[in-house]
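ugh ok fine here u go
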Amino acid sequence: MDLARTFILLPQGVYDARYRDFFVSLDGVDLFGTLPLKQAGSLAYELYTGVVRPSLDGGLALQVRNSLPITGRLDEIRSPTIFGGQLWWSTPIDGLRLGASGGFVPGFDYTFTVEGPAGPIRLDEKSDVVILQYSAEYLWKAWTFQNEI
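structure:
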C-alpha cells in the first residue's frame, strides 16, 4: 500500500516515483529503534537488508533501457540484494532534526541484447550501486522547513 510509505509524498527530486517499484518490492528484515542521548537529544536508527524484485516494466527498468545502445533490448534484471540504513538525530534544539541515509546494492546485474553485424549479442552488465542522502528538517509553529541532498 503506497500511502503506508510516507516517502511517496515527498519531493520527487529526492524520492523519484520511477524507482517506487524497486523500493517497495523489498523482501527482507528491518531493525529499528531510538537511543536517548540525554541532553544531546535522541538518535533514531533503521537498518535493513533484503532482496528486491524489480519488474521489467517498472521505473528502474525504464532507466536501464534509456542507458542502452539504441539497438539494445533489456532482457532481465536479476533480483539484487540491498543493504541500507538511516539515522535521524533529534537535536536539543526544539524542532531541529538532522538525518543521513544510505544504501548499497552490490553487483546490480542486468542482461541485454544488442544487434551485432553477425546477429544478436547478449551482454551482461554488473556494477555496485551506492545511494547516499542527507536531510535537515526544522519545525516552527505551523511551518516545516526541509532540505535534502
